[in-house]
Every structure is written in C-alpha cells, then in structure tokens.
Amino acid sequence: MKSQNRGPDFITIDGSEGGTGAAPLTYADHVSLPFKIGFQRVYTLFQSHGVSERVAWIGSGKLGFPDRAVVAIAMGCDLIHIAREAMLAIGCIQAQKCHTDECPAGVATQSPWLEAGLDPHDKAKRTTKFLQGFRKELVSLAHSCGYEHPLQFTGQDIEVSMGMNRFQTLDALLGYKRDPVNFTHLSEYASFPTRG
After folding, report:
1. Nearest in space to 151 (alpha carbons), one of 48, 92, 70
2. Domains of the chain in sequence order
C-alpha cells in the first residue's frame, strides 16, 4: 500500500461483541476478538507503516451507546456501524432465529407472512428517534468536553479505572495515539454544496 500508493478506502473492524447472536457458538466464543483488541492490532500495524491516515476507519461491535462510541473514536475510528440497537428500534426481540428465516418479529426473514407483522412506517419513526437521540447524546458529550465534534476526542480525554483509585489514560493503556483529525470548526463545513 505504501510503495504502490494504493489500497483500501476504508477498513471495518467488527468486534466479537457484535452480531445477531446467530453465529455458530464456537466462532462467537473462540475465534473472534473483542473490538478494542482487534482495532488496536490492526490500527497500530497501519500506523507503524505510516499509512493509517490514508484509510477511513470504521468500528462496530456494540458501539451504539454514546460512551462506547466515544472510546472507539478516541481509539481512531472515523465512523461507527450501529446494528443491534437499530434492529431493536425496528422491533427485534433477539429470538436468535436470524439464520433460520423464521424471525417471529418479522425483522430478519424473507417470509411474507412473518414480514406482515412489521409496520415499516412505525418502525422507520422509531429508528429515526433512536438515531436522533444517539446523535444528540454523542454531540452533548463532545460539547461538555469543550469540543464541537465527537471526532475531536482523543485517548487523553478518557481515563480507565485500573482498580482502587488508580486510573490510566486510554492512550497510555493502548500504547498509541490516534492520528490527528484535521477538524477546525463546524461553520467551515456549512458552505459545502448539497444535492438538491
């Protein structure tokens, strides 16, 4: 990638915390790594070769809560995927039948009979409300730390408890710092042309 000046536009690191619960148990228990470990290994490998800034980094694996999203961003993620929380907003009841095509809630199925139990108009509103609430909380966390945008979080902003009255910054714990983000002010992005 470095010598040929080409490579992927983005890389997604999906932690073992994610998934529908439909994965084979052996894979879920013994093959995958937690998000933080997997992300640290891949990101630092790219940093060691000086190419980490050429890639958009995406994280997933139970990151649909603002506090977890902030940690992922501070580790180096530019974006996060949210699946489980959005599926719950749609109506998923975690029946763990995704792989059988017999989802009783009608979320993960191709069966017209089961799909009929899902009202897309109602579920779209619920998902919209979840995403708006998630965004509001994430931006509120950024603002309360003196930032305009969540991408400004760094590992120095997060302290991890190491036991009784002992704390360590995320940067010190992971052994690296995320690449700097060239974010200045939101007002500078307001003038971008929009599709219309």
Report:
1. 70
2. 10-180 (3.20.20.70)
What dihedral angle (degrees, nearest 10) is formed by the CA atoms of 136, 127, 92, 25?
-50
Q: Model confidence over 16-75: pLDDT tens digits?
A: 876 655 667 777 677 788 899 999 999 999 999 999 999 999 999 889 899 999 999 999
At position 61, the amino acid (one-letter code) is G
CA distance 194 to 62: 32
Strand segments, DSSP code E, in the chain are 10-14, 56-60, 79-80, 159-163, 166-169
Q: Of 37, 38, 43, which is closest to residue 77 (Cα–Cα)?
A: 43
pLDDT tens for each residue of 61-115: 889 899 999 999 999 999 999 888 888 898 888 888 888 889 898 888 899 999 8
What residues are paired with 5 via a beta bridge?
A: none
- Mutual orientation of helices 35-48 and 66-75 as an angle, nearest 10°? 20
Rama region for 194: left / alpha / beta (φ>0; ψ in -120 to 50; rest): beta
CA–CA separation, 141 vs 133, rounded Å? 12
User: How many residues can be counted in the chain?
Assistant: 196
